[in-house]
Specification:
One of its GO terms (molecular function) is oxidoreductase activity. This protein is an alpha+beta fold. Helix content is 31%, strand content 28%. The protein has helices at 14-28, 73-81, 106-120, 133-139; strands at 36-42, 49-59, 62-66, 83-88, 91-99, 145-148. The longest helix has 15 residues, at 14-28. It starts with 13 loop residues before the first helix and ends with a strand.
């Protein structure tokens, strides 16, 4: 199991960077791979736009971004900026973001793993969509989640 760590972060490896670059390239061309978007958020120090591919989750009429690698730079930037842009090809959608409390992440993490476990499951250290509510609640602090509006 993953340690209950509010500063958990997994640095992308070389293969991860290649896959992320390919996903970003396709998404920039307007091809959404399994719901992918390019997240653009202003850097908290530089003020410059930073981009990263993300999986946009829709659940119960709400939209969420989940950080499978933990408290990554985009997470820190989004916390500081309070919003950003989701890009797919030429379409740009501005949004505001509110971080979700750990106590309500269980169904969000379960659905995220159900949809993208094939892609991000290795970051969850053996926890799957079939995990118990208690198991998902125990890992919740290591996986930031934002509700978009």
């Amino acid at each position: 199991m993953i340690a209950d760590n509010s500063t958990r972060y997994l640095r992308p490896g070389r293969a991860d960077r290649v896959v992320m670059a390919a996903m970003s390239g396709l998404t920039r061309l307007g091809v959404s791979v399994a719901g992918s978007r390019v997240l653009a958020v202003r850097g908290r120090s530089s003020g410059e736009w930073r981009t990263v591919p993300v999986n946009l989750l829709t659940l119960g009429g709400e939209r969420y971004l989940v950080a499978p690698r933990g408290h990554a730079q985009w997470v820190r930037n989004l916390r500081a900026a309070g919003g950003g842009e989701l890009r797919l090809g030429r379409r740009v959608e501005e949004f505001t973001a509110v971080e979700v409390d750990d106590a309500v992440k269980t169904p969000i993490l379960r659905e995220y793993l159900r949809r993208w476990g094939w892609e991000v499951g290795r970051f969850f250290d053996g926890v799957t969509a079939d995990a118990t509510d208690a198991q998902l609640a125990s890992i919740a602090p290591g996986f930031p989640v934002f509700r978009l509006s």
